[in-house]
Amino acid sequence: MSDKKTALLKLLDDPDPYVRERVRQEIVEMRFEGLELVYKKTGSAALDDKAEIKIDILMDIIYGELQSELEKKQKAVEKLVYIVSLLESPYYPFSFLENYYEKMAKEVQDILLNETSQFKMMDALNEIFFVREEYYGNSNDYYNRANSCINQVIESKKGIPISLSMIYLAIARRVGLKISGVALPGHFMCRFIYKDFAGMIDVFHGGQVLTFAETRLYLASMNFNIDVFRVADARAEEVAYRFLCNLINAYGRSRQLEKKKGVEKIAGMVKLYV
Questions:
Q1: Which residues pair with 191 in a beta bridge?
Q2: Bridge-partner residues for 197, per DSSP?
Q3: What DSSP state is assigned to residue 234?
Q4: Which of 45, 105, 186, 245 could form a disulfide with 174, with the two C-beta atoms 3.0–4.6 Å apart?
């Protein structure tokens, strides 16, 4: 063990609370390496309740690691959607989307003024998304391939359920609104569960909020018998595959058979991961 690590371990027991806190922060920043140090200090596989500062370090490191992995998962969705859009758009950097999402999140936060209620967050997001930005479902030209290109949807402010939901979710994630995408048969919605409320946000229809019972009736009208509560959150690969299938459909309708064939090959590869 290096001299620095040895010194850090000793300072964990320093009588000065300021010193202990500085050491704690430094060990947390070391992540798993810091976690290993703490366990060496205790000499056991588990930390007992008496080792308060060590448990505090453990919690902070695990919190940070899990948050980091979850953020990677969320970013993976955004990145895959971006890559798919390059099939129909001239090259543009991924940072274009990131900057736009950050800008929209800032506008939502300006309305919130430090308000942390999930309902207030949803109201503020809806104000920005549907009123100021004027996003809407492109029901008049639903099968236009531009609806599956996220940058073109941002420019036109119109899209299909999945593309509108991806933009909505990206902004929601940045402001702390706890919603998730759900790939339902024939439709894509955002699930919102908070305190005693559980429902679905239909971004394609102006952010209409449906209870699970209402969503089930809506799906039943399309001959789908689905228990919405039990449907898992859409994974990144599922979202990418659905975008690709929408493009395949659009190419088929416009008789662009060579492009259709090429995207079918890509979709076949992605499907292996679904």
A1: 180, 200
A2: 194
A3: P
A4: 105
Structure tokens at 209: 């909020």
Burial (Cβ within 10 Å: 0-12, 13-18, ≥19) of residue 249 = middle
Spatial contact of 158 and 138, defined as CB atoms under 8 Å apart: yes
Give the pairing of strands 158-159 and 136-137: parallel
> Which one-letter amino acid corresponds to residue 200?
M
Instruction: Give the position of tokens 């140090």.
Output: 37
- Structure tokens given for 173: 């994630």
For 47, the token pair is 């930390």
Model confidence pTM above 0.85: no
Kindly list the averaged pLDDT for each block of 10 residues, start to end, along the chain of length 274: 73 79 81 72 49 66 72 82 90 94 97 91 97 97 94 97 97 94 93 90 96 91 86 91 94 91 92 86
